[in-house]
Design brief:
Structural class: mainly beta
Mean pLDDT: 77
Oligomer: single chain
Number of helices: 1
Low-confidence stretches: none
Strand content: 25-35%
Distance between the termini: 15 Å
Helix content: under 10%
Largest sheet: 3 strands, antiparallel
Length: 85
């Protein structure tokens, strides 16, 4: 995934952390024009209005994704634990 932003003291190749609100992420196959990463769903927790997914990315990085449960179809379509996404 490529993100463009101000450098503010970072050097090329230097490691940093990025924060993305979990409710702004989505689960899907991604398209050629969409920034995306591949991961493995480690856990899925139904929270009523949303489902919280913990996704393990490359380099043992974990990402939390909140999928809104806007209707029965979306709630049952959420990836299962150990499912690639």
């Amino acid at each position: 995934m490529k993100v463009t932003t101000d450098v503010n003291g970072f050097k090329a190749g230097e490691r940093c952390h990025a924060v993305v609100r979990p409710e702004k992420l989505s689960i899907g196959s991604g398209g050629p024009a969409e920034p995306s990463v591949e991961g493995l769903v480690e856990s899925s927790l139904y929270l009523g209005t949303s489902t919280q997914l913990i996704v393990r990315l490359a380099g043992d990085v974990r990402m939390t994704v909140l999928v809104p449960n806007t209707d029965e179809g979306r709630a049952t379509a959420a990836p299962r634990v150990a499912g690639r996404t």
